Automatic annotation (TrEMBL), chain A:
Protein name, UniProt field: DNA primase subunit Pri1
From TrEMBL, chain B:
GO CC list: alpha DNA polymerase:primase complex
Annotated InterPro entries: DNA_primase_C (IPR058560), DNA_primase_lsu_euk (IPR016558), DNA_primase_lsu_euk/arc (IPR007238)
Full protein name: DNA primase large subunit
Family label: Belongs to the eukaryotic-type primase large subunit family.
Binding site for [4Fe-4S] cluster: 307, 390, 407, 448
Cofactor(s) the record lists: [4Fe-4S] cluster
Organism of origin: Aspergillus aculeatus (strain ATCC 16872 / CBS 172.66 / WB 5094)
Keyword Glycosyltransferase tagged: no
Free-text comment on the cofactor: Binds 1 [4Fe-4S] cluster.
Domain DNA primase large subunit C-terminal: 301-484
Length: 533, 500
């Protein structure tokens, strides 16, 4: 009990105002030399090494934090029960439409969630700084309660609290000018957001009127192509036009993708500049009743010309073949409404009515074929070409939920959390290889836990004595301890995603390091005092 | 340790002022001689003026700003605004160019005009820096005034003024311009040859307007701006500086340590900047004697303006509305006097295919928030948001895919609009033609009012004849709730007179 209390106090103090950075650094530093949690963990593992599977490890972790059972949420006595549930869950994986239960979620946070990397990503460095400490997190708890304005001084406190709360998901908000937990002590309106990644949100529900394969929450490989092309177009524009380099694309867990633009310049953009970018990228405008939704002026803006180049081949494949969008009479009618020439439309309509099963690709070819016959005297080839370009864009150009991008204070689901509906992990997508990404092969949480079990069964000797050290928390120092301990995530198919995330962070930190060196040195100077704790 | 030396000023260059005496030293302010007609208002005034001047100048400027705001709320076009503003500016805030006098900038008349412009601006800054809302409106109005004047300045003076600002614009070299020629032409509307213009490279953040409209070429974070787009950049710069300055003023205000001479004037001024936006006061849309319950909405919807009617029809068709549609409609319903309980019932019944739990967790909170039942203290005290005015609905962002909010006159294509009008029973060819014309000229209010007048022809005629309604009661409608109330009352009186 005492041990627990001491630890708790130690870890809470850094959250006091004014001492965030120095205290935080001490906690972190200590952590790098000797894991604060390591000794009790190892002692626990001694008499439990015979426990075969990961459920036992999960329980040991609980022991770590609640070894006296004083926390009612996770009583230590629940060990066997937890184990049973875990195995049951593993069986249920293959059942369609998994609902992730609380124990699975907890095991995921304990063993797999990359808290340290998430910390480094948001902190823009190793030493805890206000970039992380004043960052808002919003937790959705298992009972659907929504907790806003959570913040954490260090990666360990972050991890601890997430494990304690075991949220079904959590979102990331902006960095505030002060710790968001202190907001009630401030006069009204004093809490101001000062930076956040520029974010974009693509959701396949916005494509419902042009995808024929699935609707609502369902997706398949065919309609995922829309997201792939959206990623390509937006990513290219952000890099080439706006000069951003650190863009993290993340699968949203079900039917969409998010982009996090992490360049320092992007993070500090005020709302009106965010709105400008959203407007720049927003092309398909108007609701279902607005008629023609893409009306571009000519000559095309370089961004549009380039996007058109990217999208042309996608239109030919996805819209005309895979989706076969214009097959039905209603959609064919809509296509006609977008074409400029009445005479041409009339002859097209006749032709298509006579053969109702004509495929989209043929219909699309008909437009040019009939135009060439010169039946319509009023036809202007340039107008037709422009209209066809507009149509290509209307059916393929990214449909962004621009409200998300416009506001700095908008919260967005964190990478690597689990989508509660599908059980899939929100993994990063490498935009350079966007085509290879298959949302249906993204690992689900239960699958990952099973993979750990399978790996552990194959390598019984290597992890016997080491397993106890908690999942992700000790990545940074595992090398220093001689033989390198295999992380839980490395045993699973989550590894490539986390490796990609790490390389992304490395790139980001490299750029940050120049500007930040001074601050880090200040922190080092205060180190001796902070060691008193 | 060593690094901090960079920050230290070379001792020889330090100001020769003892820091202990600094606060007592006589300020040596820069005297203003106003070489240009336009002013970025960087240097505050230092000369003495009388209290009468202080008040009069401020009131004059305020009058102009209020009119500018009113023009923008009424959605007037640039040309209409110009004809409306020119005489007002001439009367209250004249500002002549250097060429209007033989002496140029040295003329005393010009100096006086410019001084008044300068001083009145700073007085209003004091009056309008107190709250976020006032600051925002002040910046908006001032920016519009500046833009208006800038556009009317003659080219040479404009150039001289711009040069005096020392904005760091990097010129684009000839070879780079040739290399990028194709892109530059593509990105810049109305341009044929790249050599026509001088091009500048600036960070894109400085020309957000151009970026948002996609009318500038961007490469690696730099915007390639043609010389004639200077306006956009200068306006952005003006706004940014003014915003920053107002923020500082607001912080300095409590320390103004003022006696009772200026503060009352300032308070009075800020109160008089009557918000033209809040034409709707609470409870205004309520209609006495009308039983407004969830079950009546279907029947009442015949009195709704087209924006709300189309929302209602969409709701009935899809059994769902997206967020902004819900918000717009909920606030309207609140405005006609639907109570919170009834409103929740209404939405619950309308959203078929959701369980109670889903409804409660996803939608109920937003409805309660709109009514001010939950949310922060400010929201609760203000009883939620006010119902949207036409101005707000017109000015909001375009509805996206699947969204149904907004104003049909503005956001629908003309054909769809006419179709929608016909389904609501407006078939008069003359009216539909008028609507087409209005929409083309972007006079959405007029179109909406035209439809109202046509559908209530007989009733309006009657109340006009028997004199029970005067002209004010039949003024142009600029709020959906006014539309409803008036429509409802007109039908009501018609029914009453028929039965009697």
């Amino acid at each position: 009990m005492d041990a627990v209390n001491n630890k708790t106090i130690h870890n809470i103090t850094p959250m006091m105002p004014h001492s965030v950075s120095s205290q935080g650094s001490s906690a972190d530093r200590k952590d790098e030399e000797v894991l604060p949690d390591a000794p009790p963990a190892e002692s626990t593992s001694e008499h439990k090494t015979d426990a075969p599977d990961n459920a036992a490890a999960g329980v040991k972790l609980e022991d770590l934090f609640n070894d006296d059972g004083d926390d009612e949420e996770y009583p230590a006595s629940s060990a066997p029960a937890a184990q049973n549930q875990d195995t049951m869950q593993t069986d249920a994986v293959r059942a369609p439409g998994p609902e992730v239960d609380t124990d699975t979620m907890l095991a995921f946070y304990q063993r797999l969630f990359p808290f340290r990397y998430l910390f480094q990503w948001l902190n823009h460095g190793i030493v805890p700084s206000p970039d992380f400490g004043n960052r808002e997190f919003a937790l959705t708890l298992q009972n659907d309660a929504y907790l806003r304005y959570q913040s954490y001084a260090t990666a360990d406190l972050f991890r601890k609290d997430i494990i304690r709360m075991n949220p079904s998901r959590f979102e990331i908000g902006p960095v505030y000018n002060t710790n968001p937990r202190d907001r009630k002590t401030l006069r009204g309106g004093q809490l101001k957001p000062i930076s956040k990644e520029l974010v974009f949100d693509i959701d396949l529900t916005d494509y419902d009127d042009i995808r024929s394969c699935c609707t609502k929450a369902n997706i398949c490989g065919k309609c995922w192509a829309f997201v792939t092309m959206a990623i390509k177009v937006v990513d290219t524009a952000l890099r080439d036009d706006f000069g951003f380099e650190h863009i993290l694309w993340v699968y949203s867990g079900r039917r969409g993708a998010h982009a996090w633009v992490c360049d320092p310049r992007a993070r500090s953009l005020p709302d009106d500049r965010r709105r400008a970018i959203a407007g720049y990228l927003d092309v398909v405008r108007g609701g279902n009743s607005s008629g023609k939704r893409v009306n571009l002026k000519r000559p095309l803006h370089p961004h549009m010309a380039r996007s058109l180049d990217i999208l042309k081949s996608h239109f030919a494949q996805t819209t005309l073949v895979d989706q076969d969008t214009f097959l039905g009479p209603e959609q064919a009618q809509r296509l006609l409404a977008l074409l400029p020439d009445k005479g041409l439309n009339e002859s097209l309509r006749k032709k298509w009515e006579s053969s109702p099963d004509r495929t989209s690709a043929k219909k699309w070819a008909d437009i040019d074929a009939l135009a060439k016959t010169g039946k319509s005297s009023t036809l202007n080839p340039t107008t037709l070409r422009d209209a066809k370009q507009d149509i290509v864009l209307e059916y393929t150009y990214p449909r962004l939920d621009s409200e998300v991008s416009k506001k700095m204070i908008h919260l967005l689901k964190s990478p690597f959390v689990i989508h509660p509906g599908t059980g899939r992990v929100c993994v990063p997508i490498d935009a350079r290889k966007a085509e290879q990404f298959d949302p249906l092969s993204v690992p689900t949480v239960t699958q990952l836990l099973a993979e750990i079990d399978a790996w552990d069964a194959e390598h019984p000797s290597t992890n016997a004595g080491l397993e106890a050290a908690e999942g992700e928390g000790s990545v940074a120092d595992s090398d220093a301890r001689g033989s390198r301990r295999v992380q839980d995530y490395e045993k699973t198919s989550l590894k490539p995603y986390i490796d990609y995330f790490r390389s992304f962070i490395a790139g980001l930190l490299k750029e940050e390091r120049g500007g930040k060196r001074e601050r880090n040195e200040d922190v080092e100077e205060t180190k001796p005092e902070s060691m008193e704790f | 340790m060593i690094r901090s030396d960079f920050l230290r000023i070379d001792p020889k260059r330090r100001a020769n002022l003892d820091h202990k005496k600094k606060q007592f030293a006589a300020p040596t302010f820069k005297q203003q001689d106003y070489p240009h007609r336009l002013n970025f208002y960087d240097v505050p005034p230092t000369e003495e003026i009388t209290l009468e001047q202080f008040e009069q100048w401020a009131i004059d400027r305020l009058r102009v700003l209020a009119e500018i705001e009113a023009c923008s709320y009424r959605n007037k076009s640039a040309a209409e605004t110009e004809t409306h503003l020119t005489p007002l500016l001439q009367k209250y805030l004249p500002l002549s160019s250097n060429t209007s006098s033989s002496n140029g900038a040295a003329d005393q008349r010009l100096k006086n005009e410019r001084q008044k412009d300068h001083y009145s601006h700073f007085i209003l800054r004091l009056a309008f820096s107190a709250t976020e809302d006032l600051r925002r409106r002040f910046v908006r109005a001032e920016t519009m005034l500046f833009r208006f004047r800038f556009q009317r300045d003659d080219t040479r003076e404009k150039r001289a003024f711009i040069e005096s600002l020392n904005l760091d614009w990097e010129p684009v070299e000839d070879d780079e311009r040739q290399r990028l020629a194709e892109h530059l032409i593509g990105a810049t509307p109305g341009l044929r040859r790249v050599d026509e213009e001088a091009w500048y490279k600036v960070d894109w953040e400085r020309v957000p307007e151009l970026v948002e409209r996609r009318s500038v070429f961007l490469y690696k974070g730099k915007a390639y701006v043609p010389g004639r787009e200077q306006l956009s950049m200068i306006i952005a710069e003006f706004t940014a500086r003014l915003e920053r300055a107002l923020e500082l003023t607001s912080r300095a205000l409590p320390r103004l340590d003022e006696d009772d001479r200026l503060t009352p004037i300032l308070n009075h001024l800020s109160k008089n900047f009557g918000s033209a936006e809040s034409v709707y006061s609470e409870g205004e849309g309520f209609v006495d004697g009308a039983a407004i319950t969830a079950n009546n909405i279907d029947q009442l919807s015949q009195h709704f303006p087209l924006c709300m009617r189309s929302l209602h029809m969409n709701l009935r068709k899809n059994n769902h509305l997206k967020h902004y549609g819900r918000l717009q409609y909920t606030l309207f319903l609140k405005g006609i006097g639907l109570s919170l309980e009834e409103c929740i019932i209404f939405w619950r019944q309308s959203f078929k295919g959701f369980t109670d739990d889903e409804f409660n967790s996803r939608y109920k909170y937003n409805i309660r928030h709109a009514y001010g039942d939950v949310g922060g203290d400010v929201n609760r005290r203000g009883r939620g948001y006010p119902p949207y005015s036409c101005q707000k609905i017109l000015g909001d962002s375009n509805p996206g895919v699947g969204q149904t909010h907004g104003c049909p006159y503005r956001h629908y294509s003309v054909d769809n609009l006419i179709g929608l009008l016909q389904t609501t029973g407006v078939n008069d060819k003359e009216v539909l033609r008028g609507v087409r014309e209005d929409v083309e000229k972007m006079r959405y209010h007029i179109a909406c009012n035209r439809v109202f007048e046509s559908t209530h022809k007989t009733e309006i005629k009657r109340v006009k004849e028997d004199g029970s309604w005067n002209q004010v009661d039949l003024d142009t409608i600029v709020h959906p709730n006014t539309y409803f109330k008036r429509s409802f009352l007109l039908k009501q009186t018609a029914r009453a007179s028929k039965s009697s």
